[in-house]
Design goal:
Elements (H helix, E strand, L loop, with lengths): L3 E4 L2 E3 L2 E3 L4 E2 L3 E2 L4 E3 L2 E4 L3 E4 L7 H12 L6 E3 L5 H4 L2 H7 L4 E4 L1 H11 L5 E3 L5 E3 L4 E6 L9 E5 L4 E5 L22 H13 L3 H10 L7 E4 L9 H12 L4 E8 L5 H15 L5 E5 L5 H10 E11 L2 E2 L1 H12 L3 E11 L5 H9 L3 E4 L4 E4 L4 H18 L3
Parallel strand pairs: 8-9, 9-10, 10-11, 15-16, 17-18, 17-19, 19-21, 21-22, 21-23
Antiparallel strand pairs: 1-2, 2-7, 3-6, 4-5, 7-8, 12-13, 13-14, 14-15, 19-20
Helix pairs in contact: 5-9, 6-7, 8-12
């Protein structure tokens, strides 16, 4: 009853997780997440990736629905992160004769995680395994987003098992292939997934995409989210755009405020951006909105304004956390501005600028700091920053 045939002889055996609150212990999952695994049936049977250990019983039952009493001959591991490799021991216990397939960097991780060192077939870039009537070709894609990551291409049907690439948050709601569902809810989650998990590795994502230039791909089977078929072009284009840190016109105003005074600056800036013709404006209170969603909007739009109060003669902690996350993701190709506030030692604007100086971004104006509460001069500073930012992001 749970069988999902993607195309001739290729099946989905993934599972949904609607229970876990945070992916990697960090990123909220309001719509859950799927752990995707696939079966390829020729004369021999290959299983592509596994699922989180907490879902292994359900996973094994789904595999048995499809293969029955047939053995699993190969277990291909495209990525060793435990949400995909966690059921290796359970699979090995049920199918002890199977060969685990991975590249040279996979081998040590399998042993270190699961104590398995035998029954492993090491493949190199371009190697092919013949399943009898079907062939699997392995393409190494290191640092998308771990050093051992690879993709597996089924040559007869043109199916790319892409690992974490082209994935997104969000459990699957009945359908598996994009043509079976309304995919609108998954694209915001793709921005969030990419910005939270993959953003630092954009150069490697670009290289991986280039490896498949001119290759016929009918289905992209990621390890999270829908199987892409009708919308492959849109998904690949979006990942390519994100990998290059390109973005659409718009401004994210990310601020923190202890008693509402700094918030007045943020609201004034947002209103002035609107008056200057910016339509895509996202205002985030960093003390309330989870960083996960802020990062997604920063990856989506080409303008960013950061502000916050002075705290212990330094940055407000949530502002500092955002700036640290942006530095860790090698943010580039953005127009940025900053502002701050304080009572007796307003220095946060200057401190935010110092953090932005370390990134490959264009600062559109000098920072300013408000003292205590908003005054006429502060409003004028807001107007100047907003007008300058608007002219940049709208390319006026």
């Amino acid at each position: 009853m749970n069988i999902h045939e993607i195309c001739n002889g290729i099946y989905y055996v993934g599972v949904n997780d609607r229970t876990t609150h945070r992916f990697e212990g960090l990123w909220p999952l309001p719509q859950g997440v799927s752990y995707n695994s696939y079966i390829v049936k020729g004369e021999r049977v290959a299983l592509i990736d596994t699922v989180h250990i907490a879902q292994s019983a359900k996973f094994l039952a789904r595999i048995e629905e499809i293969v029955g009493d047939r053995p699993i001959d190969y277990l291909v591991i495209n990525h060793m992160e435990p949400d995909h490799s966690g059921s290796i021991q359970a699979i090995k216990a049920k199918y002890p004769q199977l060969k685990i397939v991975g590249n040279s960097k996979t081998v040590a991780m399998i042993n270190n995680y699961y104590g398995i060192s035998d029954g492993i077939e090491v493949v190199a870039d371009g190697d092919v395994i013949d399943l009898g009537g079907r062939s699997l070709k392995f393409v190494l894609t290191p640092m998308v987003h771990w050093p051992e990551t690879m993709m597996t291409y089924e040559e007869q049907e043109g199916v790319l098992f892409s690992g974490d690439a082209f994935g997104c948050f969000g459990a699957l709601n009945g359908g598996v292939i994009d043509s079976q569902m309304d995919t609108a809810e998954y694209f915001p989650e793709m921005y969030r997934y990419y910005s939270n998990i993959v953003a630092k590795y954009g150069t490697f994502v670009e290289k991986a995409i280039a490896r498949f230039d001119g290759v016929k791909i009918n289905y992209v089977c990621s390890t999270h989210g829908p199987v892409w078929h009708d919308e492959i072009g849109r998904v690949v284009d979006l990942y390519s755009l994100l990998a290059r840190f390109e973005a659409e016109p718009g401004v994210v105003v990310a601020y923190a405020s202890m008693y509402g005074n700094t918030e007045e600056l943020a609201e004034t800036i947002a209103a002035e951006l609107s008056r200057n013709g910016v339509r895509n404006i996202r205002v985030h209170n960093l003390s309330k909105t989870h960083l996960s969603f802020v990062l997604a909007d920063i990856m989506r739009y080409n303008g960013l304004i950061v502000g916050g109060p002075t705290y212990n003669n330094s940055l407000f902690p949530e502002v500092e956390r955002l700036l640290s996350a942006l530095k860790g993701r090698d943010l580039k190709n953005r127009y940025v501005g900053c502002f701050g506030s304080g009572t007796w030692a307003p220095v946060s604007g200057k401190n935010i600028k110092a953090c932005l100086d370390c990134m490959k971004v264009e600062q559109v104006a000098e920072p300013f700091d408000m003292k205590c509460s908003i005054a006429a001069g502060d409003i004028e500073n807001c107007r100047t920053l907003a007008a300058t930012m608007a002219s940049k992001v709208m390319n006026l």
